[in-house]
Task: structure prediction
Amino acid sequence: MSDDPNSTLPERRSWFDRLGQMLSGEAQNREDVLDELRTAHSNGLLSADTLRMIEGAIAVSDQQVSDAMLPRAQIVAIDVDAPMADVIATVIESGHSRFPVHGEDRDDILGILLAKDLLRAYGSGEPPASVRELLRPATLIPESKRLNVLLKEFRLSRNHMAIVMDEYGGVSGLITIEDVLEQIVGEIDDEHDDTQDDAAHITALPEGEFRVDALTPIDEFNSHFASDFPDDDYDTIGGLVTDAIGHLPEPGEELSLGKFYFRVASADARRVHSFVLGVAADG
Result:
């Protein structure tokens, strides 16, 4: 009976029982829950990706809108008095789906233009004379709003963009539901996001070291350094190294894999961004 595959079930059930007790209120603090989850990952019950997402979901409750918003300087906004030809050009060039529309200055937010509303209007054969005809109400929120609260509001209102206001009543940025979700699951690229030049993934540094972007594909890394790291479980070098470390590492943590040593150069609460890489001399 020792070969019965169900013989390990009590052990699994024991761990899930402990986790369930913690989530029901018996944990002393949040770190106790994270310790149990990391233990589950070490025991093969949770994948590294799942652990990172759970850690991200927990961290979101401590983060504010200011931690994830798009800064004011990077906002693509539309002047309410702009000719419709200019409005269409802005929509096409940016590739975004939602645009803040302002009045006399960029702090005077009048509403939100949805690209689909613009398309529908022109498709009807009766194009609008002004973008004012297509505006939807804008949601204004403070920089200090918690991300978990905002995510719930986004879901309930089915509104996926909010304008972030500073303490003086000026626009400091904007945030979308995608920005919030990226704090949990990591970067979400779509067809309009700029693709990074492969050459920029790996940059030579003094003393024979390299800076390596954590999103560098493993096959690209292998090709560059004549290595043979497997890509069966992970697509990027960041995923591979994070799994080998066993937890989401902090800046300064180091790991040796074969002839390579990785030092975490940049990381946040949800993922590693870059490493400093050293390569041992052959022989």
User: Anything to note?
Assistant: The longest helix spans residues 9-26. The first strand starts at residue 70 and ends at 71. The mean pLDDT is 82.
